[in-house]
Amino acid sequence: MKLEVVTIGTELLLGLTPDTNAAELGRALAAAGIEVVRHSSVADRPEAIRAAVADALDRTGFVITTGGLGPTRDDMTKHAVAELFGKSLQLNEAVLRSLEERFRRLGRTMPAINRSQAEVPTGATVLPNPRGTAPGLWIEQHGRVVVLLPGVPSEMRGLLVEEVLPRLATRGSGLVIRSRTVRTTGIAESALAERVGAIEDVIAPVTLAYLPSTDGVDLRATAWQLPENEVERRLDAIVSLLHERAGEHWYGDDGADLAATVLQQLRTRKTRLAVAESCTGGLLGGRITAIPGSSDVFAGGVVAYDDAVKRQMLDVSASLLDTYGAVSEDVARAMVVGALHRFGVGAGLAVTGIAGPSGGSSEKPVGTVWLAAAFGGQTRALKRIFPGDRSEIRARAAQAALDLMRRLIGETHS
Amino acid sequence: MKLEVVTIGTELLLGLTPDTNAAELGRALAAAGIEVVRHSSVADRPEAIRAAVADALDRTGFVITTGGLGPTRDDMTKHAVAELFGKSLQLNEAVLRSLEERFRRLGRTMPAINRSQAEVPTGATVLPNPRGTAPGLWIEQHGRVVVLLPGVPSEMRGLLVEEVLPRLATRGSGLVIRSRTVRTTGIAESALAERVGAIEDVIAPVTLAYLPSTDGVDLRATAWQLPENEVERRLDAIVSLLHERAGEHWYGDDGADLAATVLQQLRTRKTRLAVAESCTGGLLGGRITAIPGSSDVFAGGVVAYDDAVKRQMLDVSASLLDTYGAVSEDVARAMVVGALHRFGVGAGLAVTGIAGPSGGSSEKPVGTVWLAAAFGGQTRALKRIFPGDRSEIRARAAQAALDLMRRLIGETHS
Fold first, then answer.
1. Model confidence at A308, in pLDDT bands (50, 70, 90)?
2. Chain A residues 41-70 with a CB less than 8 Å from chain B
3. Residue A414: what pLDDT?
4. Potential cystine with B137: which of A247, A307, B148, B368 (Cβ 3.0-4.6 Å)?
C-alpha cells in the first residue's frame, strides 16, 4: 500500500518549525508496511492546500494531511479538502457537545470561535481527538481517501495510533517495510562502497543506502513490503554480509553509539578510563558521559586547552612541547600517559589538534589531529587530517579517538 | 520571486533523518525575500525524482533540490535531472582535478568510484563545494532553472550561502521576509510572556513567536515581505521593546551564543577561565571551545566525574564530600575554588548534579544541579532543578552555568 503525506503550515515552509509530523508519519507508516511515496508541505492558503492534496490523490488515491484544523482564520484545510470532494460543511451536534464538554471540564466556556471546529464535511467519519479541540476526519469517496489530522504533534500522534493505523491495518497486505543500519567508522564512503561491492542486484528488493556523517558512514538496508517472517530472515543475512565486508570498520548496528561500545568493552575488562583533551575541549568527555551509567568506567578528564595545563596537569614536558609542538605524536602520547598516571586508571585517550578556523600551517593544516590511546600496557597513536568546519573536525576527532580505543582493546589479549 | 524545494532521500520519507535542509532553505530563502511555495520529499528513485522535479518546475519554473549527489549507486539526482532536461553527463576535467587534489590534501588516493562526481550535465554551471566531494550544479534552459545541492547539511549550507543566494539576489523583487530573534535564559515561557505582554496587535503585521529550548526561550519577530528599509526600522523598534521587557534575562540576539558572550566579557576584563565539571562531563568545556578563538580566555578544565578526582585534582576535601554529598553548595563552591587555584586563573565555573536516569532521591531528585561561579574575588552558587531527560538536563546545566557567570560579571564592578 502506498500513500502521500501533505503537511500544512506556513511555518514549515519558512523553516521556523521542524516538520516532526512528516518524520513521525514516515516511521509509523513504514512500520505498518505502508510506503510514503511523496511528502509535500504547503502554506496555510486554500488554493495551495487544494492543489497539493489533489495532486497527491491523483498519484496514489490516498493522502494523509496534518495541520490547518484549528479554530483561527489561518486554519483552512477542512474547507479546501471539502471543496475538492464537492462537499459542504455541516455542524455535527455530537462533535459540538464533546467540544463544549471539554471546555466545561477545564472550567471555561467555549469561545464562539471554536464552534467552527464542529463543522464536518458531509459523509466524513469523525476521528475523536481527546487531546485537543480539532477532531480528525476520514473522507472517502469513489475509492479515494483523504485523512485530515491536526498539526499539534501530540494530537497528531494520538489520532494516528488510535484511529488511523488500526483502520489502515484492515486494508493492508500484511507486508512490512523495515530498515536495519550497520554503523562503520574510520573509512570513507567511497572506500567502503568498494569493500561492500556491487551487491545491490544480489540483495534486491532490499535496497542499500550509504549515509555519511561525522560519526562515520552508516549502511542502511531497507526491505520493502515483504512478509514479516521473510523480512527478518533476509535482513539478518544482509546485515551479516555487511558486517563481514565492513570488517574492522564495523562498530555497531542501528542506534549503536561508539562511546557505549567502548564503555562496555572496558566494563567487561574491569578497566577504568580517563581522557586528556585539547582541541575537542571536553566534547570527548561529553560523548562518554552522555551514556547513562558511564560513571562506573569513566573517572574523568583534563581539558588541557592551554599548553601550560598540558605541562602542569598532564606532566607533558616543556621540551616535548617546544621540540614537536602541541599537535604531535609525542605530545599526544605524553598526554595519554599523563592521564593514566594522574587519574590512576588503566585506559586513556588523548586528542590534540587544530580545529580551525585559524592556527593551520602548510605542514599542519586545519583538521590535523593526533590521537593517542592507552590500554593493557600498550599505547597507540594515530594522525588524521579531518575535513569540515571547526565543529565537524571536533566531532570527527572525538569519534576517531573512541574508535582508536575500540580497535586497541579488540586487538589486545588481556 | 517563488520557487519549490525538493529534498531527495529515502531516509527522509522513512522518517529516519529529520529534514533539516528543507527548514534551512526555507529560512535562508525567506530572509532573501523568496517564497518557497511548496516543499516535496521523494525517495532515491530516478522516476520519483524526475516526476517531483518536473511537477515543481511546471508550477514555478525554479526548483532547488538537495541530496542524491554522492558517489554511490543510491545517488541518482544528477542523472534524473539531466534526463529531464534532455542532457547527457560529461566528465568535467576541472572538477576531476579538484576532487583528486582534495583527496591528495587528505593524504589519500581518490577511489575510482568518486570519478562519477566529476560528471556534469552539458551546459550546467558547476558550483564549487570546498567542503565535500559533490559540487553543486545550476542547470538553466528556456527560463527554467534547477539547482542541485548536496544533502550533507554543512555542504548544502555552504553552497547556498556562497553560490546560490548571491545569484538569486540579482533576480528578486526588493521585498524581504526577515526575522530577528531576542534570546533569553533563566525564565520560563509563561513568565516571559507575562513580562512581554500582549503586543501582537501593536506590532502587526510583524508576528511574534515564543521558542523554548534547553538554551532558554527565544522571542522571534518576523516581518513579511516589506521593503528592506522599512523592515529594518520596524524590527529595530520591536527588538528594543523586547530587550527592555526581557530585562536581565536577555543575553543576545539572533545567533548569539552565551558562551561567546561570556568569553567576550572575560576578554575585555583580561581574565582567564577554567571549569570544573561533574554531571556535564565536558559539555561545558565543549560549549566554550566551540567558539573560535576561545583559547585566549579559556585555560582548560577538569572533568571530575569520580569523587576521587574531585579530591585529587580539585582539592575538594573528603569531609565536605562525606558531609554534604557531591551534589551540594559546599562541594560546588570548593570545586570552583579548586579550579581557580589549579589553573591559576581569575574566573571559574563548577557544575555538579544528578543528570539521571538513576541516582535521584526524594531530597535530591534527578535534575538537581548545583552551579558555582567565581570572578573578581567573588563566588556565587545557585541550585536549580531542571526538567527533561539526561541530555536536556546536561544541556540546561551548561547554559545555566554560563548564565551565572554572565550575571556575576555584569554585577561586578572590577
1. very high
2. 41-43, 48, 52, 55
3. 53
4. B148
